[in-house]
Specification:
The complex is a heterodimer of chains A (269) and B (359). Chain A is an alpha/beta fold. Chain A is built from five helices and eleven strands; from the N terminus they run H-H-E-H-E-E-E-E-E-E-E-E-E-H-E-H. In chain B, helix 1 packs parallel to helix 8 (310-329), helix 6 crosses helix 8 (310-329) and helix 7 packs antiparallel against helix 8. The longest helix of chain B is centred in the last third of the chain and has 20 residues, at 310-329. Classes of the chains: A alpha/beta (269), B alpha/beta (359).
C-alpha cells in the first residue's frame, strides 16, 4: 500500500526529502503565532518547564491540545525529561543527550538535531526530530512513537520493549540490539549486526544492511505487516510503498511461521 | 561462619590517655552528590541482588519493606514487587506520627538493558546503582530467565518475551558512547532521581584501568562487586585496600566505596568500614531470610494476595547481626585512618592493609 497518492505533490516536493516531509506534516506548527505558550530553554530549567507544561489545560480531543513553543534550544542535555501531560510541543533548535527521556502523552517536534539517547524509556506520546539523532535513539522504549527524519547513529531501539521507531534516513550498527518488543522502521540503509535473534521486535528495512546479526534473516512482508507498515508511513508523513521494505526476523521465528506453528505455538524458541 | 578478615583487629582506645569518655558514633552517613545534595544512608549495609523472582510479588514487597525498615538499603524495581498490579509498599510514603523518615531506603538497579525499569523507580530512591556490565544470574548465565522477563515486562501469556526463551544480558549501556560521556548519563540520572546518590558499580577485574576512567565521570560513589570471584579474606582485604589506593591516587579518597563481598560476618563489615569502606552488602544474610519467606508463604487455591509476618522474620534473621554492626561501627571515628583503627599480628596482613603491626 502506498503512502503517497497525490501526483502534484511529487512534482513540487523532492522525493525522499525528509525535511520537507516533516515540515509538511508540521505545517500547523510552523507559524510562531500559533503557539499559545512560549518558554525559553535558556531562561528556565527543565523541572520548571515540566511543571509549567503539566499545568496547561487539556482539551477534549487531540486538536484542542495546548501548543507550546520552546525556544533557545542550543544543545542542552537531559532536556524535557519525564513530560507526562497531553500537549503539542515544538522545540526550536537542537537538544543534547537524553532529551525526552520517559516521555508520556506529550506530542513533541524538534526543529533541529538531538544527541544520544533521545526518548530513552519513552512510554507514550510522540517525539519527532527534523534532523539527525546520535547513538541509542529510543532505547528501552515501552510505547509511543519516535520519528527521526534525518539519520540516526548506532544501537537504535536497543533493549526496546514496545512502541515504534521510524528513521527516515540511515542508521548505524547494532540496531535492535536486545530489543524484545516494538517496531523499528528504517527508511535508508543500516550498519552492521542488524536485528536480534532473541527478539520479538518487528524490524522493517528499505535500503540495505552492511550485515545482519547471526540468527536473523531477511524475509518479505506478510500482508498484515504491509498494512501495518503502510499506516506507519502515512502517520509519519513519509512517502513510500510498504512493499519496498523487507522485514528482519529471527530465523527460528520464520521457521515457526513456515511450519504454520507461529500463530498456535508462540514459544518459537 | 568464621571472619574472613580474621587477622585484622579493631583497636581499642589507647590506655595512656586520661578518661575522656569514648564517643559513640552514629552509624548513619551521608553521601554527598556531585551537585552537593546530601543523601542520608541509615546503616552501612545494603541488600544488593535480592532474587525477588523466587517470591510471590506481594511477599517480595512485604519482605523488602521489612528489611528496609531495619535500615538496610534494599535493591528493587517496582516491578520486582508486583507493580503496577499492586502498589509496592517499598515505594510508598511511610510517614506516620512516630516516623520522621517518609520513604524507606531503596536502591534502583539501573541495568544495562533497563528491562523492567519504570520512571516511578526514580521517585524517592536513595541510591541509583548504575551497572556498566552484566551480572551473572543465580544459574551462572549472563542472561535473564523467562519468568524474570515476564514479571518485568508483563507480556501477554500468548506472546511471551523472546519467544519464551532466555534473554541475553547487555555488556555496556547502549546510550553511553564512552566512559568519558558517562558524566552526562550520571547527570541525567541525578535529575531523574533528585534525592538519590548515583553510584557506579564495577567488577574486580580491571580496576586499575576502570577506576580512573570512571572517576572522570564524577559518580557519587563506586560499588565494587567482589562477589564475582571467590577469594580468601586476604585477597578481599587486598582488593579493598587496592581500590582505596586507586581512589587516593586520583584525588578521590573521600568518594564513598560500597563493597559487595560475598559472605561476611558483622565483624568483617566493621573492619571493612575501618579500612575506609562506606557500606557493605549483606546478601549472604538475606538469602536464608528469603528461603524462610518462601517457606512461610501460604498456599491458597484462590487468587488472594498472600501475607507473611515479614517483620518478625526479618528481625529473627537480621536483627542480631545488624545490632553488632551498629555496635562495632559506633566505635569507629569518621576521619581516622586504618592504621589508627586496625591492627594485625600477622605481618603480611599488616603490610597489605597498612595497619598497625601488633606484637
Amino acid at each position: 500500500m502506498s503512502a503517497a497518492t497525490n501526483p502534484d505533490e511529487a512534482e513540487t516536493t523532492p522525493p525522499n526529502d525528509p525535511a520537507s516531509s516533516f515540515d509538511k506534516d508540521s505545517g500547523f506548527l510552523l507559524s510562531a503565532e500559533d503557539s499559545e505558550y512560549k518558554f525559553s530553554l535558556q531562561a528556565m530549567d527543565s523541572a520548571t518547564i515540566r511543571s509549567r507544561i503539566a499545568e496547561l489545560p487539556v482539551g477534549p480531543n487531540e486538536e484542542d491540545l495546548a501548543r507550546v513553543e520552546l525556544t533557545e534550544a542550543i544543545g542542552q542535555h537531559s532536556a524535557l525529561m519525564r513530560l507526562d501531560h497531553p500537549a503539542r510541543i515544538r522545540v526550536r533548535g537542537s537538544l543534547g543527550d537524553y532529551a525526552f527521556a520517559f516521555n508520556a502523552q506529550a506530542l513533541s517536534k524538534v526543529f533541529g538535531d538531538v544527541g544520544h539517547g533521545v526518548a530513552d524509556g519513552m512510554i507514550s506520546g510522540s517525539v519527532r526530530v527534523r534532523g539527525n539523532a546520535g547513538h541509542g535513539a529510543g532505547i528501552s522504549m515501552t510505547g509511543g512513537t519516535l520519528g527521526i527524519y534525518g539519520s540516526a547513529g548506532d544501537r537504535v531501539g536497543a533493549s526496546m520493549r514496545g512502541g515504534g521507531i521510524f528513521v527516515r534516513g540511515d542508521v548505524g550498527d547494532d540496531v535492535g540490539l536486545g530489543a524484545v518488543a516494538g517496531t523499528i522502521v528504517i527508511g535508508g540503509d543500516a550498519g552492521r549486526n542488524l536485528g536480534d535473534p532473541q527478539s520479538n521486535v518487528a524490524v522493517f528495512l528499505r535500503g540495505s544492511a552492511a550485515s545482519l546479526k547471526d540468527g536473523v534473516t531477511e524475509a518479505p512482508l506478510k500482508k498484515k505487516q504491509e498494512v501495518q507498515l503502510g499506516l506507519i508511513l502515512i502517520s509519519a508523513g513519509i512517502r513510500g510503498n510498504a512493499t519496498d521494505f523487507r522485514r528482519i526476523v529471527p530465523i527460528a521465528m520464520l521457521e515457526a511461521e513456515k511450519a504454520a506453528r507461529g500463530e498456535v505455538v508462540p514459544n518459537w524458541r | 561462619m568464621a571472619d574472613r578478615l580474621e587477622y585484622l583487629h579493631l583497636l581499642p582506645p589507647v590506655t595512656d590517655q586520661i578518661w575522656s569518655g569514648h564517643a559513640i558514633h552514629d552509624a548513619e552517613r551521608d553521601v554527598i552528590r556531585a551537585d552537593d545534595v546530601s543523601v542520608p544512608i541509615e546503616l552501612p549495609v545494603f541488600w544488593y541482588e535480592p532474587n525477588w523472582i523466587r517470591l510471590n510479588p506481594t511477599i517480595a514487597d512485604q519482605l523488602a519493606v521489612a528489611v528496609a525498615n531495619l535500615g538496610v538499603t534494599v535493591s528493587a524495581l517496582a516491578r520486582d514487587l508486583g507493580a503496577p498490579e499492586f502498589q509496592a509498599g517499598l515505594l510508598c510514603d511511610q510517614s506516620d506520627e512516630d516516623s520522621s523518615e517518609s520513604y524507606l531506603p531503596r536502591m534502583v538497579p539501573y541495568r544495562v538493558e533497563r528491562y523492567g525499569l519504570s520512571p516511578e523507580d526514580f521517585d524517592e530512591a536513595r541510591v541509583i546503582d548504575v551497572r556498566l556490565s552484566a551480572v551473572r544470574n543465580p544459574d551462572g548465565r549472563l542472561a535473564y530467565a523467562p519468568n524474570q522477563m515476564q514479571r518485568w515486562e508483563q507480556a501477554p501469556e500468548e506472546s511471551p518475551i523472546a519467544g519464551g526463551g532466555y534473554v541475553a544480558a547487555g555488556t555496556f549501556p547502549p546510550d553511553v558512547v564512552s566512559l568519558q560521556q558517562l558524566a552526562i548519563k550520571l547527570s541525567q540520572l541525578r535529575q531523574l532521581a533528585p534525592h538519590a546518590a548515583v553510584l557506579v558499580s564495577v567488577g574486580p577485574f580491571n580496576l586499575e584501568e576502570e577506576i580512573p576512567a570512571l572517576l572522570a565521570s564524577k559518580p557519587d560513589g563506586l560499588i565494587l562487586r567482589l562477589d564475582e570471584v571467590e577469594v580468601q579474606g586476604k585477597y578481599l582485604a587486598g582488593a579493598i585496600c587496592g581500590a582505596k589506593k586507586l581512589l587516593r591516587d586520583n584525588d578521590a579518597s573521600d568518594l564513598p566505596l560500597w563493597i559487595v563481598p560475598g559472605a561476611v560476618t558483622a565483624d568483617d563489615i566493621a573492619k571493612m568500614i575501618a579500612l575506609g569502606v562506606s557500606a557493605v552488602a549483606i546478601d549472604a544474610w538475606c538469602e536464608p531470610l528469603l528461603d524462610a519467606a518462601i517457606e512461610a508463604t501460604p498456599v491458597s487455591r484462590y487468587r488472594v494476595a498472600p501475607t507473611i509476618d515479614a517483620h518478625a522474620l526479618a528481625a529473627e534473621y537480621l536483627q542480631k547481626d545488624l545490632e553488632r554492626v551498629i555496635g562495632l561501627t559506633s566505635t569507629i571515628s569518621p576521619g581516622k585512618t586504618p592504621k589508627q583503627l586496625l591492627g594485625s599480628f600477622h605481618p603480611t596482613w599488616a603490610k597489605l592493609c597498612r595497619v598497625k603491626q601488633l606484637h
